[in-house]
């Protein structure tokens, strides 16, 4: 028996569109982002996926993404668990700055290190390692036991909180995770065995 884990990054937010570092700031989805969330909901429905449990972060772009997916899947009146452990990486002092302006000020290489290195945090913020230090224990305590029991779990979260989970689930190195991008609205679907290990990556 395997469990099914569906990880979905929120649809495009207003700050993704404006190219701003977002982190724990709380912008809404754009119209395009709403469409991405709905399209992913439709794809999950078409694949016959009916989750048993639903998780999201404390931020509205992920929560709204989950709501729109549920609408498309025709699912109502379910319990949604929200937890800040699934929030985006905290971008600290970069939050609200334009990413191109930051590159002009600090240089391409430094900004890439802040954005994608494993263990170098942006000033006042969290590295991917710091993000994993809160995201993984939550996954292991709350979500993994459900997967081991054969349940289907849908998680709507963020680029970097999901990269932290993907790194652990796929057993990627810090070098491998550096190059791993998750697009807005993109679903990643895993089958997880009773031992908690990745059994299969599913293509929708
Ligand atoms: O700004 C952010 O919070 C994230 C995701 O949009 O950006 P990045 O791709 O730089 O990690």
TrEMBL record:
Q: What is this protein's gene name? A: gpmA
List the InterPro entries. Answer: His_Pase_superF_clade-1, His_PPase_superfam, PG/BPGM_mutase_AS, Phosphogly_mut1
Active-site positions on this chain: 10 (tele-phosphohistidine intermediate), 88 (proton donor/acceptor)
Matching SMART domains, A to Z? PGAM (SM00855)
SUPFAM superfamilies for the chain: Phosphoglycerate mutase-like (SSF53254)
Its biological purpose:
Catalyzes the interconversion of 2-phosphoglycerate and 3-phosphoglycerate.
Catalytic function, reaction form: (2R)-2-phosphoglycerate = (2R)-3-phosphoglycerate
Output this protein's name.
Answer: 2,3-bisphosphoglycerate-dependent phosphoglycerate mutase
The record lists the organism as Devosia chinhatensis
Native organism taxonomy: Bacteria, Pseudomonadati, Pseudomonadota, Alphaproteobacteria, Hyphomicrobiales
User: What's in the keyword line of the UniProt record?
Assistant: Gluconeogenesis, Glycolysis, Isomerase
Tell me the leader sequence span.
Answer: none
